[in-house]
Amino acid sequence: MSAPSAEIACDTFPRLLLQHASKRPNAPALREKYLGIWQTWSWAETAAEVRAMASGLAALGFKRGDHLAIIGDNRPRLYMAFAAAQSLGGIAVPMYQDAVAVEMMHVLEDAEIRFAVVEDQEQVDKLLEARESRPQIEHIIFADPRGLRSYDAPGLMSLEALRSAGATFDQAHPGRYEREVALGKTADVSVMLYTSGTTGKPKGVCQSHEAFITAARGGVQFDKLVATDNTLSYLPMAWVGDHLFSYAQFLVAGFTVNCPESADTVMTDLREIGPTYYFAPPRVFESLLTSLSIRMEDASHIKQRLYNAFMKVALRCGSDILNGRAVSAKDRLLYALGNVLVYGPLKNTLGMSRIRVAYTAGAAIGPDLFRFYRSIGINLKQLYGSTETCAYVCLQPDGEIKFDSVGKAAPGVEVKIADNGEVLVRGAMVLKEYYKRPDATAESIDSAGYFRTGDAGVFDSDGHLKIIDRAKDVGHLLSGEMFAPNYIENKLKFFSHIQEAVCFGNDRDHVVAFINIDLTAVGNWAERRHIVYSGYIDLAGKDEVVALIKDCVEKVNAELATEGELASSQIARFLILHKELDPDDDELTRTRKVRRGFIAEKYEPLLSALYSGKTVQHIETQVKFEDGRTGSIAADVKISDAKRLPALGKAAA
Q1: Contacts of 630 (CB under 8 A, 6+ apart)
Q2: Global pTM value
Q3: What gap in Å lies between CA 559 and CA 566, rounded to an integer?
Q4: What phi and psi, each to the nearest 5 degrees, are found at residue 343?
Q5: What are residue 483's DSSP bridge partners?
Q6: How many other C-beta atoms are found inside a 10 Å radius of the C-beta of residue 384?
Q7: Which residues pair with 360 in a beta bridge?
Q8: Contact 424, 415 (CB under 8 A)
Q9: Radius of gyration, CA atoms only, the chain
Q10: Residue 6 reports pLDDT greater than 60
Q11: Per the count of CB atoms within 10 A, which of 196, 231, 245, 393 is most buried?
């Protein structure tokens, strides 16, 4: 098919793909590291693969409006499956690859999945198990044949067999693929992404080509992304952030998407690729800083002194230099020296030497964590959005970065604050509907077309939006003062020794906290002090570890004491949970958001003990193991008091 004009070619993803294949056929589109070697697909090769896959699906009976489940780690051919389904007018439904079969049931049934393209044997096994009670799953196509040679299930076929069938079908039906692509409309639903389900069953968010292309174009123009940029794709394909950065923006800007060999090689592959454009949720940046802190604790005394001295310089002026603000000649000279001795090698170790733009989203990032990365010269910015808005609501303009805001309304987006403090947004990126949930759709979008985000926020004097917390989570202490649990939790998680935190205090006279220690960071800390421990439960109960975490809690209290109304939210008591919060135990969503209500109910004896003044509480907890078995763990959990400070004036910015 001859390439249409730009105005026509750019309104659906399959037509964007064909445009790139026509204009820059030999440029690299997708790369994957396989057996230690990077494999590359050009735009022409990618378009040919998509055509073969789409024709193969058509041969199996896949038609306009059908749903295609896509499950696995980030792989070029799985991204191609999105475009293959969309080429036929179908809808891609990515699912979390680490979900167990039981968790997949809801999406498989709700989305009425008949066709699935999966990565490997693990995902095939889950779908075959699910098919025992959901027989409508007719076709399961796998990309990696390892371990599947002896499988003989109905409808099970390799991706190679699908492509071969597609080539035959394409030859027998000349022009059909072109006609199907031409029939696509920009208002058609292109993808269905399921919400995390923090308060109930996940809902299918129907997003159109227009919605994601609008969001992608806005971001590409805002940050001046170009075809020569490189990004590393390693976050779940079922997450809206990955779909925006690794699919929508990829097809709009035409840059190269690189897929790591495995989850274990992400950092190595990151250093090899040296991306110019990078995206990660706060937990990844927290983990990187934790690893760095551990390495510095084990470094020589000279290296520690050098690092500490130049980090003081970076924290004093690094962000101002990055923002283009005035900095003294002395500080510029010291910073330049620090860049040679500390910041440059540090960025190289992190694989971030070439980054022009880095984004974080999905949860609030602690101001101190944010400041650290910008201080060493990494242009880290926050964006604000949700599954229902294509992860596109607010962006931070270069030179106007504020550590406590998520930026200004993105191009083409209207943002306002409702009378109750809820953030409302309107624009082409808002969802078309929740699948089979007209009630939820009507409830989430008001009569003026504004989507109710569920977040509480305020605008500052410069028009920057500050997100306080989820609107439903913002409460009040008995004294009437505001209680914003997520805000406090993010402060706690800045400390490398704290992996997760859950705070409670709504309608109570004081705030308490459950804390998960970071096993790697605290384990390293304990070993250097010759503290012997046998595992997480044992380490979490050590008096020395409790004292370590108490120090972190009291530092957070000291910060809160300077924050006006939030000064009353200082943590009075805390405990270190005897187990790590886990998505497999339903305590976190697959995007690692806290299920606060579920945790409060599950650990009610611990919560009651915190408020009753006890110093120890016995608890027995049911857990799920990776192989599907269940068991229980028991422990005597220690409860500690934390020092609270009188409210002080707001600290200087």
Answers
A1: 622, 623, 624
A2: 0.81
A3: 10
A4: -65, -45
A5: 475
A6: 28
A7: 382
A8: yes
A9: 25
A10: no
A11: 393
Distance separating alpha carbons of residues 169 and 24, to the nearest angstrom = 27
Q: What is the pLDDT of residues 333-356, one digit of tens each?
A: 999 999 999 999 999 988 899 999
Beta bridge partners of 204: 194
Among 202, 227, 249, which residue terminates a domain? 202
Which tokens hold the place of 171? Answer: 């030859």
Cα separation, 550 vs 536, in Å, equals 18
Rounded distance between C-alpha atoms, residue 44 and residue 237, angstroms: 23
Range of the domain at 79: 6-202
Mean pLDDT of 381-410: 93
Round the average pLDDT of the chain to a whole number and report it: 92
CATH of the domain at 142: 3.40.50.12780
DSSP 343: I
296-300, 473-477, 612-616, 624-628, range with greatest mean pLDDT: 612-616
Grade residue 263 by pLDDT with cuts at 50, 70 and 90.
confident
The confidence band for 649, taking pLDDT boundaries of 50, 70 and 90, is low
Residue closest to 73 by CA, chosen among 121, 115, 38, 106: 121
Tell me the residue ranges of DSSP E strands in 541-610.
571-576
Alpha helices (H) along 61-92: 76-87
**Residue 342 domain flag:** no
Higher pLDDT, 594 or 605: 605
**Domain contains 410:** no
CB 231 within 8 A of CB 269: no
426 beta partners: 414
Q: d(Cα 648, Cα 27) in Å, to the nearest integer? A: 58
DSSP-derived secondary structure for 75-136: -HHHHHHHHHHHHTT-EEEEE-TT--HHHHHHHHHHTT--EEEESSHHHHHHHHHHHTT-TT
The strand ranges marked E within 269-347 are 277-279
Q: Which residues have CB under 8 Å from 484's CB, separation 6+?
A: 456, 468, 469, 473, 474, 566, 569
Asked if residue 180 has pLDDT above 80, the reply is yes
Identity at 324, one-letter amino acid code: G
More confident residue, 315 or 100: 315
The enclosing domain of 599 has a CATH number of 3.30.300.30
Q: What does the angle CA 494 – CA 498 – CA 500 come to, to the nearest 5 degrees?
A: 95
**Looking only at Cα atoms, what is the longest distance across the chain?**
79
Show the tokens assigned to 242.
């990955």
Q: CA–CA distance from 100 to each of 106, 126, 241, 586, 645 (Å)?
A: 11, 7, 22, 12, 46
CA angle 141, 146, 152 (to 5 degrees): 55
pLDDT of 627 strictly over 70: no
Tokens of 295: 């390495």
Contact 520, 294 (CB under 8 A): yes
Q: Which amino acid is at 283?
A: R
Angle at 159 between CA 155 and CA 160, to 5 degrees: 115
- CA-based nearest residue to 211, from 436, 420, 507, 410: 410
In a domain, 390, yes or no: no
Q: CA 96 to CA 396: how far, in whole Å? A: 29
Q: What is the pLDDT of residues 23-81, one digit of tens each?
A: 999 999 999 999 889 999 999 999 999 999 999 999 999 999 999 999 999 999 999 99
Query: What total of structural domains would you count in the chain?
Result: 2
Q: Is the confidence at residue 585, as pLDDT, over 90?
A: no
Distances (CA, A) of 615 to 539, 550, 575, 636: 18, 14, 9, 10
Contact status, residue 84 vs residue 57, Cβ threshold 8 Å: yes
Rounded Cα distance between 83 and 247, Å, is 9
Task: Identify the sign of the CA torsion 628, 632, 633, 639.
Answer: positive
Cβ atoms of 594 and 109 within 8 Å: the answer is: no
pLDDT interval class at 468 (50, 70, 90)? confident
Q: Is residue 222 a part of any domain in this protein?
A: no
Task: Return the percent helix, strand and coil in the chain, to nearest 5.
Answer: 40, 20, 35
